Each structure stands twice: as C-alpha cells, then as structure tokens.
Protein: N-acetyltransferase
Organism: Salibaculum griseiflavum
Amino acid sequence: MTPDLHTARLTLRGPRDADEADIVAAINDLEVSRWLTVVPYPYTPEDAQWFIGECLSGRERSWAITRTDEDRVLGMIGGRDSFGYWLRREEWGNGILSEAAPAVVAHIFEQDTPGQIRSEYFLGNARSAAVLYRLGFKDTDQREVTCRATGELVRSQQVALSRADWRPPSPAAS
C-alpha cells in the first residue's frame, strides 16, 4: 500500500477508483502526454482504470498529487522501476513538483533502501529536467525512445540519483 505523504501544501496518496475522471481529464492533453514515454493519447477511462488497478495491486507505485484542502488529482508521481511524474497543464509553474518530488524521493530512500533512483526526461522538456537536477540527479546516458502518445522517436536523457548524492532540501528552501 502506498502511504500518504504530506508537504506544506500537498497530500500525496495512492490513486483510487474515484480518481479516474480526474486522471483522464488531466493526462488526455497532448501537451502533457507528449512528454511521457508510455502514456497513450488519447487517454481513455480504460487506460486510467488499468493504471489505478496496477497501483492498487502493488505492481505500480505512484502517488496522486492533491492539494491538502482539495482532493482533486493535480498529477501523479512515483514509479516502480523509474521515477517519473506529470502534472495537469494548468498547474505547470506553480512549484507543485518541486514540493512533491523531494517528499517522494526521501520516502523511497528511507523505505526502499535502493542504491540509486533512475529517471529520464525527453530533451526539450526543461521543466522536468529542472525538477530532476534540483533533486541532485546526474546525467548517465542518452537513448532514443518512442513516445507512445505521438508515435515519434525522441531523444531521452537518462539520469540517476545515488543515495550518497541525495540531500533533502532544507525547510527554508521548500
């Protein structure tokens, strides 16, 4: 089970069946899904049901990002094999991921004891890159991947954050 995590403004919780409409509305936006490797476009209720089921079964580990005073899903963060995230387009630039990501990374290093966390971003996605680099991720390699939403071959920057390099942000920096 995905434990709830809390930050100054956010509650991060496991996705649930009632989130289906929020998830579909948010990610069925090509400006969001075009930056993700495995998310189809259009994104259907069946896609959301499958994803939620994977999370509820424990095969996937992701947190729904919500404001503490509002249960509407703003985005998702987490992953089993690779750290990733997305946000509703209208939430871009509001510091949501800069607040949510350190909480999730801290939880992963505290609970799962991995030696490192891997992630990637498509070249050209400066916002996503900035979130990862602020956390301390370092470049490892590049590869070409097919974006499922667009069917295009894109260049992806592989990054990793080692336990030794992880430095939780100070409360003043949050």
